[in-house]
Amino acid sequence: MNESSALRSVSLGDGRMAIEGLSARYIQGSARRFRLKAAELRLIGGFESRDGRLEDAQRILAEAHVADGALRRAGFDGEAEAIGLTLRPLSASSEQPRLLLMLGYREEGGSEMPFADAFLAPSVFEALKADMLRGLAQEVSLSATTSLWVREEDRDLPDASPLGWYLAPGSDGKAVVPARGFIDSIEWMPQARPELLAETMPVPHAAADHEADEDWPESSAEQLRKINWSFKLLLLLLAFMMIIIAVK
After folding, report:
1. What angle do CA 122, 124, 127 make, to 5 degrees?
2. Which of 11, 34, 169, 234 gets the highest tally of CB atoms within 10 A of its CB?
3. pLDDT tens, 204-245?
4. Looking at residue 6, what is its pLDDT?
């Protein structure tokens, strides 16, 4: 597919995305989990003042890569190489029971660089930090259900096949819309492994042949998937709103 950074109109609706001038169409709600694998963990300590309050600013930094796939920007050539991963503890007063993930690009040194921010429950962060300081956590892997996009023709790829994950383009045609998600699992280990353990997920059945692209036909299963995915997106929005309220 010949993608470029030229400004194009983007149409979004009903969990689908189309970009002017591109034949590919994108959907959300893939059965596959987005997986990151990170190494070179570094603990950063410190405090910061916010609204007259002194807050703990400790975090863990790492260099991450997408496992069994790649992170891309829809409408752009190329893929993200190293992704800057930051693991942060949620506020101790937060009642958020889930682990959260945000993905996108931010400007660093005059360039747009990919990032992933993981927000962990305080108990999870402290357990990771303790093992890291004892030399028992040199590598981290996580899987998440996210609002990232995949190409429609790749939706039913088997787990063994690499999958491209896409960030939606911003309104200016250059920036991207950050993706959010729930972390389903996180694990760490003392030394690098040759590969991540395969997730025991059933391989989705091959989709039936579609009609003409412009028709975008739907089955009952597809409609149910959209309802479930819309509910997950609503939960994501509420979770990140709680984080914003907690830090104010």
Report:
1. 105
2. 34
3. 444 444 443 444 445 555 555 555 555 556 666 665 555 555
4. 55
User: How many helices and strands, by DSSP H and E, does the chain display?
Assistant: 2, 15
How many structural domains is the chain composed of?
1
Q: Would residue 13 count as lying in a domain?
A: no
Asked whether residue 125 is assigned to any structural domain, the reply reads yes
Domain that includes residue 60, residue range: 34-147+162-193+217-247
What is the C-alpha separation between 244 and 103, in angstroms, rounded?
A: 16
The predicted-structure confidence for 94-148, as pLDDT tens digits, reads as follows: 666 779 999 999 988 888 899 999 999 999 999 999 999 999 999 999 999 999 9
Give a yes or no: residue 226 inside a domain: yes
Is residue 86 situated within a structural domain?
yes
Show the tokens assigned to 94.
């937060």
- For every residue of 22-77, which 3-state class applies, written as one string? CCCEEECCCCCCEEEEEEEEEEECCEEEECCEEEECCEEEEEEEECCEEEEECCCC
Please give the model's pTM, rounded to 2 decimal places.
Answer: 0.73
